[in-house]
């Protein structure tokens, strides 16, 4: 159980990271 929590938070960080990258590429495309 303890191992699942850090992994989950890591996944959330990844998602936020990729979201920010997508936003940046979208802005540069406009």
Descriptive overview:
The termini are far apart. The chain has one helix at 4-29. The chain is 87% helix and 0% strand.
Q: Assembly state here?
A: single chain
N-to-C CA distance: 44 Å
Order of helices and strands: H
The proportion of strand residues reads under 5%
Instruction: Provide a count of the helices.
Output: 1
The backbone outline, from C-alpha atoms, is: rod-shaped
Major sheet summary line: none
- Percent range of helical residues: over 70%
Mean pLDDT: 79
Low-confidence stretches: none
Number of strand segments: 0
Indicate the radius of gyration in whole angstroms. 13 Å
Class by alpha and beta content? mainly alpha
SSE blueprint:
Layout (H helix, E strand, L loop, with lengths): L3 H26 L1
